[in-house]
Every structure is written in C-alpha cells, then in structure tokens.
C-alpha cells in the first residue's frame, strides 16, 4: 500500500505535493519522497519517516520547481530502507531528468529485472518503481521509443498493479495497469495546475474538487499544449475481461472521504454494515462498537440499520506507533492494551456487537474480544466487514503467507472458538457485491483465490 | 497541559514509564523526558518530539533502574526548547540524585524564583518544574528540612497548580496543590510496582486497574517500607474553600477512557451533549456531526438524547502536525482543509448540528462552518460543549490573552454572525454543573473570572 | 594544487588508495574523495576534511573492489563544497560506471562547458574534473568513440594542465596534458597491482619503488591483458615546443622525498640554497634559519655551501589550521605568532640569513622579519628560493590576481623596505635554471608572464 | 601528558584560551575542553578531537565570559571518551560554578576516590581532574574550608603529579604538586589579563613574554584585588627532598621553543646531542639524521659539535594519524613507511648517525634502521637522547608495563642486535645530568626505578 501524487504547472509544486502527501499519509507511513523539476533537472529527497518530518518548510525551500512527484510508502517488496523509497530518478548525461512514482506490486518483477540486467541496466534497489522507470528509460534511450510507446510496451511485458506517474523535465505522464487494480485520479485547478493522486482527498486539499479516473491501461500526459490522452484498449493486455479494482480499498485502505472507483468509500462501508445488520435479524444487542478507526463507518451502518446505539467503547492510542514494547519486556501480557483501551464501566453486562473490517491472523482481535469479556461484557458478537481472507495478495497489500491466514485453515466456528466471541459472522462475498455499484469490476482474489494475474508462488 | 508518570520498584521502570507516556501523549506532544534512578544516580533524557521517537528501545536499553519519572509537555511557560522540558534533575556532590516532574502552572513563579536567586540558587530554564525542584532541594540542603516538610513549606509559598512527582535515589514522593486543579492518581500493581500518573489510562496500560486520587495538598511517598501518607489539611493553604478541579479536563483535555476527579470522562461528555439536546427542543436536525476527535462523545450524547443519527461527516487528518503550510505559501485559501475534509456528497441539503467542545478565537470553527455551507448544508447549528471562554487560564492551559478570546468582547449573536452559523448555542454554566457529581469542586474561572488563586496580570 | 591516486588490480584497492592519499595529503587538505569499482559499479565517497578523518577503517570496509581512484583537493576553481570535490562518477543506465580524478586547472573551461551544455550535458559542479569526465563520456556515449580516441579529442579541445586518471568498471586509464605541467607517475607492484599517482612518495608507501613518468600527451591504460600505451605525439597539441613542467613543484609543492620530472626534489632545493649562498660572497652571517617546513632544504643547501650553522630558530605550530583567530578578535596584533614562534634567547645579536621559498603578498614574511627584529636579531638577510612572482598561474596554483602580488608593482628595494629586512635577495631565473637538469622543459610563466597556453583574463 | 591553560580577566577569555590550546596541542591530541565563566556559571564544552575542530569560531561565540580554563588530553588514566576529558565542572544549587583542569597523574587515586565515595561523593569519570575537583568541593562544601586550605589538605592526602588550575565564578587558583613534576608557568599581560599554562609558548602566543614558575606546592590565586600567594613549604609534603621535575619534558614532551624548569628546551636538547658527539670520538660519520621531529635538536647539537652535516634524510608524514592501516590489511609489511619515508638516493653508501630521543618498545626504530639499510646505508649508528627506559612512569607519561620496555630485559648489545644497527649508544645518566643546570631537581625514575612517590603496582 502506497500513495502517489503528481503536480504539474504550479510554481510551488513541492508545497502542493506535500499537501497531497499529508492527505495520503494513511497509505504509507514508513518512508516518503519527492522529486521536483526546475525545468532542467530533478532534485530528489526521500527519507524514512512521516511527511511532516521529512518535508519541513526549510527543506521545501530547497525544492524549487513547477513539476513535483511525491510518494508515501508502506513496505511490501524490499526491505525498510531509504533506497527502496520512491520516487526514483534516472541520472543521465543530461542530469537527473526523469522521475517516477508508482503504487502497486508487480508480479513478474524478477523476470523483467533479469532481462534488463542482461542488457546492462543497473538496479540500485529492489523497488517496483525503479523497475518501471528503468524499463521506460531503456526503451527510450536504447531503442529510441517515444515515452507513450514505451509505456505501451511496458503494459505488454510487466504484469501486476501499477498506478504510476512519470515526469520529464517538462512533461508529466500518468498510466495505470489494465485491470486498474489500485486507485488513481486526476484533476485540474482553475489556476492551471494539473494534479494526479491515488485518492481524490489529496486533490480536495489542493482545491481541486472535480476529478476523473485514469482509465484502465490509460496513458495520459500533460505538457505546455495541455492534456493528451493516448487511446489504448485495455482488453489487449487482459487475460480475463474487465477491471479488477481492489475491493479492500473500500473496506480498509482508502480514506472514508475519498471517492474510489466511482463510489463514496464511506457509503460502501455503511452499506456493508447495513448488510451485516440485515443478517442479524434475531440478534438484539445493546450497543455496536467499532474497532477504531477503520471500522467506524461499518459500525455506523450497522447501528443505523439496526436502530441501536453506536458507541465508541474502545479508545485507540494514536501515539504508540512502531516502538511497541513487547510484552516479554515488561511482564505485562497485553500488548494490545497499549493500542486500545476500553471505556471504564462501559461494557459491563452489555450485549455488544463488535465490528472489525477484516481478520488476517486473528491475534489482535482475539485480544480485543478478551478485553471486552474481562470488562464483563455479557456477549461479544463479532461482525467482520469482509469475507474470510484465505489467499495472499500479490498486487500491493502486505498480506502474510496463506498458512498464517487464520481463515485459510479453519472453519468459522473454529475461528470463533479461538477468538472467544459469543458469535462470529463475516459479510459474505454476495453481500459484499451488493455494496458496490459494479461488482464485476472488482478483484476478490484474497477471498476466492481467483487471481486475474497469476502470481508466481515465492517463499 | 502536560502529563506526568512515576514508576517505583520495577526493574524495568523506564519501559513502564514509556508505556505510561504513550497513554498520556495526548496531554503534550512538544517534548518528552525521563529520569531513571539506578539506585545511585539519575540518568536523564529529554528531547523535542513524540515519546515513540525519543524513547526507542535502543535508548531505553541505556536507562536501567527501578525508579523512573516521565513527562510529556505542551508548552505554556518558557519557549520551545529542550531546556524547558521535564523532568528536572538536581546535580550535587552525590551526583544527579533528585528528580522531579510536574503538571500545572505556577502563579507566583517570578517572585519565588527571585527569592531563591537571592540565596544563590541558579536556574537553567524558565520551567515551573525546575522552580519546584530547586525550592525543595534548597530547603533540604540549605535548611536541613526533611522532604515532606519542604513540600509543606512549598505549599505555603508557591501558588498555582501542581501535580508533582519527585524521586530521590530510593524514594518516590507525590504531592498536589491544595485545590487539586490538575488530575493525579496512583495505584499498586500486584507485582509490587507503584505508579503515579496524570490520568488513570496510563495506569491501565501498566495493568493497574484500581487507582486512588492523590488528595488535595496530599503528600505521599513510597520507600522500601511501603506507602506513607503525610496527613495534611488543604484548608490551611486555601484562600477559598474546596477543591477547584479544572472542568476543562472533562470537556477537552483528558482521554475519554480516563476516570478524572471521580467521574468517567466520556459520561460527562455525553451528559453535556444531552443537556445541549434538551435545550434544542424545537430543532429537528437531520444529523449530528462532531468536530473530531475531541467532540465525539458530546455529539454522541446529543444524538442519543435527540434520537437522530450521529455521523462522522468530517474526516480529520492526523498526519498534518505542526508543519502546516500557510495559505499564503500555496495560494490555497483554506488551511483548515489540510486538517478536516468533509465526506463527499454528505452535507448537501442537510440540517446539521455541528458540535465542538469550545470556542477560543473562533478562527478554525469559522472555517469549518464555511466548509459545510460550501458543501451545501441547508442549516448549520453550532453547539458548544462549554460556556463562553471569556478569561485566561493561569493554571496550566495555554489560553491566549483576553482580547483574543472571541467571547470576551462579543455577544453570542455577534459570534454567530461572525462564524456564519444558522444558530449558535453554548452549554450554560448551570447545565455544565449538572453534568458532574460535585459541581462545587470545580474551577470555572475561564468562564466567570472568579479565580481561586489571584493571578498577576502580565503581558 | 591537488593530488591523485589510482589503484588497479588489488582486492583491497580502497585501502591502498587511502595510503596513497595519506602520502599526498600535503597537496590538498580541504576535501578528499574516493571511487571504488566492485567490477560492476562505482561506490563514491567524498567529504570536506583530511583523509584520516574521511576514510576511517569503518568507512573503508564499505568500499570493496579492486579498482580505486582517489583525490585530495586544495581549492582553485569552484567554492569549498563537497560538490566540487573529486573523483567524479558518471551515472548511466548501467549504473555509476565511469570515474575520474584529475590534478591541474583548465584554461578554456567555460567555452568547453558551454559547448557541452548545448548538447544537453548537465553539470553538477564547477569542477575541472567533471568537465573532463563529461567530455569523455559524451564522446563515448553520443559519438560512439573509443575512450582513447575520446582522450585524443579532449587533448585537441581542452587546454590547460591535467594529470588525470579515469576508470571504467574493469579498466584504468591515465593521461596527461601535452606540456606535462603537473607531475604524474605510475608503477607496478610485484603482486600485480598497478598504481598511478601525482608523486612517487605515494607509490613508495605501497611498496612500489620503481616508477615511470606518464609522458606528455600520454594515453596509457591497464586491463586484464596488461598495460597498453597509445602512441601520441605531444607536438600536435602544442603551441610552443617542449614540456612545461611547473617549476614550483620543485620549489614548494612536492614532498622533498619525491622524484619529480626526473629530479630529486630535495636536491633541487639544496642546489637553490647553494646558488643563493654563492651570490652572498661578502656576507658573513652567524646562522641560517628556514621558514619551516617548506624552506628547510633550501636553507640546508645554503648552510652547507656557506659552511655556517643551519638552525631551526622558528618553531611552526602544525595544529593551528584554518580556524585561525583574527587579531581584531583578540586584541593581539600578531596573528603570525599563532603559527610561528621563535626559540627564546636565540636570535639576540645574531646576523641571520632567513630563507623562504617564495613571496606572494609578503604579509606573512613581513611579520616574521619583524618577529626576528623584536627578538633583537642584529641583521635579517632574507633569501628567497624563487624569482619574484609577478604573474598569476592558470594551471593549478592558487595565486592571487597580479595586483596583489607584491613583486608585480614594486622593486626589490621597495619590497625589502616594506618587509624591514636588512637585505633581500631572490634566486635569479638563471640561477634557478642551473638547479634543474633540463631547464628548457619547465614553465616560468609566474616569473616571466610567458604562458605556454594563453589564459583568458578573468576577474 | 596533557596541557592546561587558564585565562583570567579578559572579556574574550575563551578566544585566548583557544590560542593557548593551539600552542599546547602537542601535549595531547585526543580530546580537548574548555569551561568559561560569565561571572555567574560555567559553560562547558569538551569533545574528542583537535582544538581547531572543537573550538571553531561559531562555537566560541557561545562561550562568553572573562575566565576560561582549557585542557588538551593525551589519555593516561581512563578510556578514550569525552567523559574523561577535562575541564571538570561541579554543578551545585548555585549552578555549575567551579571548574578545574589538571596535568599529571595521581598515584593514590583509587584510595582517595574510595574515601570520597564513602562520604557520598559521586564520580562520573575515571579522570584525575575530577578527583581533584571533587576533593576540593567536598572540603569546601561539607567541611566549610576555604579553598586554599582545601588545597593544602589535598597536598597532604593526594599523591602524584598535578599542575592544576581551578576557577570559581570570580577567582582563578593555580597549584602544583610539591615535587613540581610537570611544568607550570604564569604571567601577566599589560592589559590586565592573567594567564597560566603548562608551557610558556602558550603565554607567548597571548603576547605574554615574561613568565614565572608556579613554585612546588605553590598555591596562588587571582581575584579583583590582584594576585595572591599563599606561602607553603613544599618540604612538609615530601618524602624525599627537592623538586623532581620530569626530565622527559626536556627530552621529548615540551616544545623546543618553551622555557621549562628554568631552561631553554632546545638548548638542553642540543647539549644532549653534543654529549653524544663527545663520546663518539673515534666515529667519523658522513651525516647525522634525526628521527623527525622530536629528535631534530639533539641531532643538530650532535652535528654542530662533530662538525658534520645535519641532514633531514627521513621525511615524516604528519597526516597519517590514528587511522594507521595495519600491514595485515594491505599485505604491505612496513607500516612505518606510512609515517617515515627516506629521501631517495640519499643513504646509499653513507655512514649515518641516526638520532632518536628514546627507545620504549623498539618496534618503530627497528623498522627505521631496516629502512636505512634497505636504502643501502653503509653503517647506521643509532644514538639515543635519553638513558635506557627501564621503569614505568606513574606521573603522567603513558609508558607501557616494564616487561614491554625493551631495555628492562635486554643488554644494550642485545638491543643493538635486535634493532640491526651498526652501533648503539644511549646518553648516560651522568651525561644527561650535565645537560641541565640543576640536575638534582629532576626525576630519573624511568631510568633508575627510584620513585620520589612510591607507586602502587597495578596490572
């Protein structure tokens, strides 16, 4: 999971890109980066850490230019290192003059990299973005292709998810994989700025309130002549028909105020909650409590449909972060209590519907269920806003291997027993389909194992 | 606003103190610090930044010892500098062997400091905590007093709010001002650890689920003989009778899962919301929306009493922080949009009750009201969970001078007009009194100007 | 003034290069750098500071490879910044795979840079080495030239002094300007290592005790087939016939234990001293004292020829460096006394011959003369090991503009009077010619203004 | 070996102290430090590294005040750490208000520290200076002594070498051990500044050209009334009569331009050289060559007496420093060649007298002798400016344990054979006595084992 931003034609492009990255920080907090063109070369800055720490005003002051690409990263491929941060910039005799940032994971990274290395191309990271950049530069420099043609070639050869922005010293290109797996939108400000982002909340913050989807297999670019759109039929690159948007963008990743794949994220979540409520006909709970913050809207949807109170019974500590102190270090056995604390005297004797967005390994939600029971909740009915996650994702979500997925080797009853909940229900795949307008345009591979792009199983 | 933590008798005291500071980080994000005694001397670390960044595991590894004092700081007196961070440690011939951390502001800091300086005492900061520490060490070292007597003397001489923990190499003392203005609780873990904190959520995280208030003018200490309690009548130090707990701890500062001054914070907030609803008899709104996160429970209380939907219509970006880019830098005019974004298509045509906890200058809430109107909300009824703030606080809250307080020079109607809201109502002082069990034990000076301790007006 | 080193075919090339740089540190103390090829790409490290601080063992451990280029820099063109340090490395699609280090200044830098920029070449520094590298890479990459041909083309186009080493991932090239202005030698170790350096003292330290000159306009390279020598007639590039070695390498720059342009440096210096003595027939001094350390051998030569005692009457403080505290800062008027201190009770009543290598502005030597007089020296006869410096150097020596050169606007008697010396004599140009074996092969432009390569006068 | 400086009554005391430390840098290059009083408290800065790097002008700008103490350190007791650097400053209720810097080693450090620790005194380092400071502060603070009385008490209790400067906020004290083992001088500038230093070259640089010795057991101080001298008979503290100045200050440590223990250092060294020459009646060498730089004056003295040429046949590289690369790392077997290089073609066929100041382990001089023989020197007659070093020093010189001293287990002939020299002669103890004016006032313990203060043998 990552976020991208691209700004074209604003004299303070780096500042706008920083605003966009603020808005997308939820998509990746490990590292961030920015490349800014002053019309001649790109200046690059990338570091581990949050946008607000990496791009302080004094640093931005050194990044003058009217084109800026930015990226926030949550690590999937490659270790936690600034080398694996994006954007990537290609140095040539003309200076560092091409930059690229991308969101999504590639499936045939190893093969393509090996082919490029045979041609003498050097890689300084294990990052997908570098592969995309080197592929294009190689086509352009060594084979004399125009950039749009190089991108088309890329779509034939490189498989996986990519929502990508690329800039030369005076142009900005945007392109997206044929299944449109990850979100990607763009828009124009009335002052002439063009911006592209993973989520439209990053455009909102720039005052761009109308946005368009970059189409599947879309190749767009903007230069001083304006916007250009290369017609490109996605069908030619597809093994299976249609888009395959990641449904987890709605369930978990995207911000609730974003408009993803043509839908309001919060509305989809509320609909999921309502579906869960509809199937709980016989249940008469006292309260609905979300595991904050990602499940808030699912729980709100449940509460409204059911007509019972929504309560924020669990308080989340936003400040714990990664330095999480392990229980063995402190002889306290509940590391989850560092992150979640129940309201005092709240749960006692109550029939609680506890709502979470998904279950991966089940370790955290199990501790939360225990916490509620220890607080003397009478019943804890666990409701999950996604079907059981039984398969790994290869397109940009950091899921563990199958055997670590609790739903891949256990029945729902076994899971319920392990978690200690009074009852457990997942939203069904059919119910989930009912929550989005175009259910056939989504990828459900992590529930079904039907991958639109066949992954190579690796350790 | 600050938070303190003290740990006694745990071999990994620094780790427990770090956990406690995680839980209290909402009380101050500017700087943090810790002093740990290895039984001989204190090792001190304090820096600008969040607890999770300052006290990473590798740093904690160098802070061995069984007594630890910690502090998180939100700046009130003194500039933003690590010198003004707490705890303070006194270096003597015996090494750095006394440490102190305190929450609250002192009213006669300048006078007391001048008196101590006349005796040759040196101050390295402008921080209240250093004054308290130097005062006590001076009494002990130069006048031969026992520490409890020095604290009693302090209570006679130093005026203001202080919830304070002090440690020598083998003892931990806790004391609190006679009006008990700021919160302060302590508790015992079954493994023998004693902990003291600003809020009990910091004890919860340590597995200490029962806690006691440090009484007003209380002087407690723990040594290898156990807990000691110095009887001390607060009346002797009081100009006016009774406790004067800060009511804003309930309205805004404390975490909703804390139990402050004998009350559940979230319950107080929900009651405030209900009071606001009770007075809106004739109003029939479509939704209630909080300004997240501090107003969530007030809005929930309003929604429940009124029987209308609670909706999280504003999304708050937690990642913006202090590097906030000014509008003039980016030609975008709405800096508030960096922090709050409305759900798309949500407000259109709705009668909205917008709930906030308080209004200080009014600049932010004005922009939020405008935002909702621009989203085509039909009506925006603003409801405030505190009475109009008309006077500055001198006991630990960073309020601006009177003339910057919008309520000090304007009628409510004038404020409403400035904000652009359809209607505006504050909870009244009487209603607020009805929300806590012992209303006479609270300080309402910021609403009434009746200060329990008379401040010296300074610029 | 700079120093270069190149190491080929040693598995610890970076360590050998560091040793070489230690030996050449006298040629430049501002910054240093190294590029090491692991057979694939170059790893680069360059920083302000001394070799011993920049290339500590822990840093060397990260610079594995069998080819290493190193550089020490004394600033001439370009500001004091690590960007202007050498070596330079060219990044391409194949990674950072060409590196270059050079000693000497270019005369037509601006013209050549402008021509390259017109072709789209980007410069990240104002450094001569970058120009040489970009020129060659441009010829190779854009025009398909072989490297030796590119170097030949360079010799036609680029004017000035350059003793240059260039490496690709598996070859090391050495080349030198047609006048062989700066020194450059190479040699083989019996273990197969090939090394090139500015001075042979840097080869000595590696155990390479036999060395050869890189010929004027010489183009040599070494690969896994061994050493290659491209025949190249220097006459084709010369405006005036013959070599034009910098005579100041003997007088001042090179280490006395080096063998430069076919001569022992210390022998040349002793001969200069003897010439000065020969002309002092009527003078009967008590002692000869050098301005340490550069004039030691000239003074020794004088003393031996004259048969009077050589005495180290001035002690030089090696530790003062650049943080020299200005007199106005301390109300002490003799900043020279920070660097030189006289032996106590030494000069009193003595007729002293004071020897220095050259006079540029005259400010320091004036203070030294005053110092000796204040110590009650009876007479101070100043003898200078070079003719009057009347013209600026454009080939690598950091001389000031003409009007700052004391000898360019004053007679010798005027200079003597300004300095306060009893008598003043410079070695004459004729005498100097008599001190080297091939006097026609040297450049005397700073004494005569006859430049082998016509400079563009710039401000 | 360390150096101290103290400045009193100059508004730019820190700058003057920096100049003094520049002049004394030869006495210690590991770390340096300074404490400056602004009349109220001391500001302290100490770091590993050279004075010119630690006290850059920007750092000095933060050290305002009219009293400054400085120190350069060569490590003897305590590890290489900034904690062990000097000066030490005592923090009290009145702030950091006493500072101390000392040169010399203490013999009964462990005992005195243990006694002070029993009284509750805390030590933060293993440094002698901290012991002296804590001892005095303890006497003053806990026992109410005046500082001069505390120093007298110190002289009774603490054994060893100490040339010490101590400052309070408005006074500067100087005192010295009863045997006056290490040098210590002071002087007045006509502008009212008082300065104290290890060597007078540090006073010279300040424009103070007349200096006085701090007498053995002397206790002096300066305040706004002027200079004070506490009469104090050293005999009362002495186990054996007389001063015991370290004779190695003349042979090796001090700068040749200093005036130590009433003698010109360079004169003593030249006399040693002359004594060595006098005993070489039958020897007719071609040249005398010093091991630079410490033996230059001994070799000059030898050459003048003998009437044969003094030649600087070995060039020393000043830039190698501590990062010395070990031979095993580079497969080069002569690490000495990193530091010393012979003049080329110089030694061939010559009868050389090679002069060194002393032999400790013999490893370096052995390699130098080999170097000369490899250069085809006909004969290498090694002459040493001190008697054989057979015993360790406990008063401030970092000598190894006895068994590592080559002269402690071998005859001179055995040493000669090990070194490979044609002949070997040390100056005899009698001859050495003939080189100083007051031979009975010196310590020769490292030659004879007769220690004025009995050391505790430790591992």
Structure description:
Chain A has 459 residues and is α+β, with helices and mostly antiparallel strands. Helices cover 28% and strands 23% of the residues of chain A. A 7-stranded antiparallel β-sheet of chain A has the order 3-2-4-1-10-9-11, with helices on one face. A 6-stranded antiparallel β-sheet of chain A has the order 5-6-7-8-12-13, covered by helices on one side. In chain A, β7 (163-168) and β8 form a beta hairpin. In chain A, α4 (109-118) runs parallel beside α5 (128-143) and α9 crosses α10. Residues 327-333 of chain A have low confidence and may be disordered. At the A-B interface, α1, α2 and α10 of A face α1, α2 and α10 of B.
Topology:
The structure is a homotetramer of 459-residue chains.
Chain A: E1 2-8, H1 13-24, E2 31-37, E3 42-48, H2 51-54, H3 57-60, E4 67-73, E5 88-92, E6 95-103, H4 109-118, H5 128-143, H6 147-157, E7 163-168, E8 172-176, E9 185-188, E10 194-197, H7 201-204, E11 212-213, E12 219-223, E13 226-230, E14 245-246, H8 248-253, E15 259-260, E16 263-264, H9 265-278, E17 287-290, H10 296-306, E18 314-316, H11 327-330, E19 340-342, E20 351-356, H12 363-374, E21 379-384, H13 406-409, H14 412-419, E22 423-426, H15 429-433, E23 442-443, H16 445-448
Parallel strand pairs in A: 14-23, 17-20, 20-21, 21-22
Antiparallel strand pairs in A: 1-4, 1-10, 2-3, 2-4, 5-6, 6-7, 7-8, 8-12, 9-10, 9-11, 12-13, 15-16, 18-19
Helix pairs in contact in A: 4-5, 5-6, 9-10
